[in-house]
Every structure is written in C-alpha cells, then in structure tokens.
Design a protein that fits this description.
Elements lengths: L3 H4 E4 L3 H10 L1 E6 L5 H12 L3 E9 L3 E4 L2 E4 L3 E8 L12
Antiparallel strand pairs: 1-2, 2-6, 3-6, 4-5
Length: 96
C-alpha cells in the first residue's frame, strides 16, 4: 500500500467543487492517475480521520496546445469525488 501523500495530490477548490460540497457532502481531490477507488478511500480516511461512504473517479485527458509551429499536450489527470458520511466534513480553510 502506498503512502496517502502519493495518492492524494491536492484538493480541488473550484466553483463546482464548492457547490457539490454544500449539497452532497462531497469533497474533490486531484489524485494519482493510477490510484483506484479503494486506495483513495483508505488514504482519505487515514489522512483526514473521516468516514468515506463512496468514491467516484473521473479521468480527464490533457488538452492539445499549440505554441507557434510546435504541438504539445497537457498531461492527463484524475479527480475523485469523495462522499463523506453524514456529520463528517473536511475544512481546508480552517485558519483563513
């Protein structure tokens, strides 16, 4: 089993993520592309000390970009919608 810092790369704080968090008690994370749902659930439970009900994952392909004549591509990445149990929450901006 990998360490949770290798699985959870960053929280995603976006408008959609905030809306989903308020309505469905979910939190969004950017996760390692090769992480599966079981690893993500275990990592969130260990790191944040919360109970996870379910995990949905989405693979996002990198966009093609052009700079002059040179074609490139942004890297593909994966995000996870983590549903927390009732009464559980993760606050990323406690001290702010």
């Amino acid at each position: 089993m990998r360490h949770y810092s290798e699985i959870i790369l960053a929280p995603l704080v976006t408008e959609k993520g905030t809306l989903v968090g308020e309505t469905g008690n979910q939190v969004l994370f950017k996760v390692a592309p090769d992480a599966n749902k079981i690893e993500i659930k275990k990592a969130v439970e260990d790191f944040f000390k919360v109970k996870v009900v379910r995990v949905h994952t989405v693979r996002l392909l990198g966009k093609r970009r052009r700079v002059g004549r040179i074609l490139g591509q942004r890297p593909a990445w994966k995000k996870a919608y983590v549903t927390l149990a009732d009464g559980q929450s993760i606050d990323f901006f406690e001290g702010a």
